[in-house]
Design brief:
The protein is α+β, with helices and mostly antiparallel strands and 213 residues long. It is built from 10 helices and 8 strands. It is globular, with a radius of gyration of 19 Å.
């Protein structure tokens, strides 16, 4: 079962059954409840973290103690590879946002040895890191550059099903905005016939107009 879930993660898709088995052998599956912390900002890594199921939030805390959400992970994916690879402190805190969030904890040192033995596998790790850089750029734009409506439109374009299937309070947290602000923006997008009554995207061309600079 763990093997099947691992294959849903992009970097593991092309691995042989034997290679997947090697990863399982050096890993421990752990289930986190809502609000359980996977690791704290500043903590040194002991594992590589693979999200197999559930919902994880990455956030930083500013000097005033305010929470700055960096990213939400809702699909099977590797998380926080850079600190684990470089053996540097985590740059953010990771917390489970739903009960029964499944995380595969992969022993850091033994996993690095596997990477050193398999150049092709190392290439997939590099691709995963590149994708994280793109996601960080999106997070920076949403938090520092975009206004409220552009934030929401960008989110809908990237995650059209999340706006339908996720509680709007949680979406507001993802976007670092008040739930009331999100409600006003969604109402406007519905009035413009960009979204239907259930917040499903029905006019992508109009949506993209808010994303043009």
């Amino acid at each position: 079962m763990i093997k099947n879930k691992l294959r849903k993660i992009e970097i593991f898709k092309s691995l042989s059954d034997g290679e997947i088995e090697k990863i399982v052998e050096i890993s421990v599956l752990k289930r986190f409840c809502r609000d359980n912390v996977l690791f704290y900002e500043g903590e040194m890594p002991r594992y590589f973290y693979a999200l197999l199921g559930g919902y994880v939030k990455f956030y930083k805390t500013d000097l005033k103690g305010h929470e700055i959400v960096l990213h939400f992970f809702t699909k099977p994916i590797m998380m926080a590879e850079m600190p684990s690879l470089e053996n540097i402190p985590f740059r953010a805190t990771a917390i489970a946002m739903r009960d029964n969030t499944e995380i595969l904890l992969i022993d850091r040192e033994r996993f690095i040895r596997l990477l050193q033995e398999d150049n092709e596998f190392s290439f997939y790790i590099i691709k995963s890191l590149t994708q994280k850089i793109k996601e960080l750029e999106v997070a920076i734009n949403r938090n520092l550059i975009y206004d409220a409506i552009t934030k929401v439109c960008s989110f809908i374009k990237d995650e059209p099903l999340e706006i339908v299937n996720t509680k709007h309070k949680e979406v507001a947290m993802m976007l670092n905005m008040a739930p009331e602000t999100l409600s006003r923006v969604l109402k406007k997008l519905k009035n413009l016939k960009i979204l239907d009554a259930q917040c499903r995207l029905i006019n992508s061309e109009k949506l993209n107009m808010f994303l043009e600079f």
